Structure formats: C-alpha cells, structure tokens
Amino acid sequence: MADFLKRLVPKRFQKKGTVIPVVRLHGPIMSGGSRFRPALNLSSIAGQLEKAFAMKDSPAVALSINSPGGSPVQSRMIYDRIRALAEEKNKRVLVFVEDVAASGGYMIAIAGDEIIADATSIVGSIGVVSGGFGFPELLKKIGVERRVYTAGENKVILDPFQPEKESDIEYLKTLQLEIHEIFIDMVKARRGSHLADDPTLFSGLFWTGRKGLELGLVDRLGGMREEIKTRYGKDARLELIGAPKGLFGRRAPGIGAFGSTDQIAAQAVAGLAETLEEKALWGRYGL
Questions:
Q1: Catalytic residue among 155, 165, 173, 245
Q2: Is residue 243 part of a domain?
Q3: Greatest distance between any 2 Cα atoms in the chain
C-alpha cells in the first residue's frame, strides 16, 4: 500500500536518494517474553524482517544488532530467516554491531554479507553456556521436603532442588558440545576465508570490534550512517522498520488487556525473573 501511494506522488515532490531499511535486533534472545520485557525471537521480529526485505527499490537491508545472546534455537531461527529472505529477495545484508553481538547475537550477525562494528563494541563469545541455581541446602534449613515421582530414571535430571550428579553434568556437556559444533560450523561456513588462525577463536572468548577485525570476525570498523552514505551516496536515507501495528495503531503481537489480579501478579513475577536473567546476560560483557 505504501509503495502504491508513493507512486501517486509527483516525482518532483518525491524524496531523492536510495532508501535502506533498518531492522533493530536488540536485547537478550529468548522465546516468549512479556509485557515487561519483550524478548528478541523470531516471532517478535519476523514482521519487521519481511517488511524490510519487501522494499523493492532498496539494494540492501541494514541490521542493527545489540545482543548478549541467549537461546541458540531462536538465534539460529532468526539467522535462517534472514538468509532465506536475502536469497529470495536478492538483497545484500549489512550488519552493524552496536554495544555487543556476542554468543547468539554473533550467530545472528553472521547472517550478514558484511559485518561492520564500532571499534569499542564486543563481538565473539562463540561458545555455549548453561546456568542455574541449586537449592537443596535451603530446603533443609526451612524444613521443606522435596517430593518428586517419575516414570523414567532421568526425568529429574539437573533438578535444582537436589544435589548435583556427575552423570547429569556430563550429559549436559555432551549437549553443549553438540550445539557448539553447530555454531562453529556456521561461523566457518559464513566467514571461513576471513578467519584468522587463532586457537582461541572458538573458545568462548570475546573481543573488542577492533580485535574482532584482526581475527576476521568483522569486516570493517565504522557506523551505520557513514557507511550507508559512503556506499550509496550523500542522499541515501535510512528507514527504521518498526513492529507491525494492528487496526488501531497498536503493536500486533502480544496485544490485549491485562487480565485478572492473579494474572497481573504472575506477569510481574515473570518480569522480575526476566529482568534478572537479562542483567546477567549483559553483565557478562561488562554492560
């Protein structure tokens, strides 16, 4: 509809210059999300990606990434969608790293044909991490007995209310190694010819954008506005693609009135947990 209306405007009143759509991929990557903490996942970003790649006159799509990582599944799904749209619409993908593109954030970044980062940004962390808390001693102190009944000897693997078992830890590590191998293969497939021969590259370490350039994790240092104008001319313009909106101007996904008092309380508790998880993810990179 927007393209149709644009064609009705006389050419002398139309803005000149190439328009590059921009999609912001910001925040921790996780499924779900809430009113308190919208999550970065395929469901939340799919509409913006579709709209950006559908802009026929734009030769490229710019992605602004600022994410400490999170769910490897959602990271890979976003990566796959970006690459599928780029090939379908024949668009070049330019990724711009802001504060951080690490772990799952970097997995998304390699969907770009080129990665441009600020010299002081954080990139890398090509690894897999799992974390949690254990409460068995706390239960003893407050006089609570844990009762669990299962069919299947491994149904309570890694139960935070029971002491850790070496067999559970070893099993978790086998899963982590498998996901890590997939991540490494993705990085090599997308950036193999650029990567430096460095033994720490896939160790989970992270670096500044400047060091990332030396290691081949990024292609160039710089910012979005300057890069776009250098490539497409001084009249080139950036157009931020927002979330799709419904009939009355509200964002389409997750819209609805607050429910009962119990539901509001549950959402508040979920929001607090998500806030703590988000702070932990950002905190790993000193942010």
A1: 155
A2: yes
A3: 79
Count of domains forming the chain:
1
For 213-228, the pLDDT digits (tens) are 999 999 999 999 999 9
pLDDT in tens, 1-47: 555 555 555 554 456 789 999 999 999 998 876 555 668 999 999 99
Three-state DSSP at 233 gives: coil
Task: Please tell me whether residue 147 adopts helix, strand or coil conformation.
Answer: coil
**Is 0.85 surpassed by the pTM of this model?**
no
Q: Which helix (H) or strand (E) holds 60?
A: strand 60-67
Q: Is residue 262 one of the residues assigned to a domain?
A: yes
CATH code, 212 = 3.90.226.10
In a domain, 167, yes or no: no
Could you list the residue range(s) of the whole structural domain that residue 229 is in? 2-127+182-283
Q: Which of 64, 71, 103, 125 is catalytic?
A: 103
155 is catalytic: yes
Residue 188 known to be catalytic: no
Give start and end residues of each alpha helix (H) in 25-141.
42-53, 72-89, 104-109, 136-141
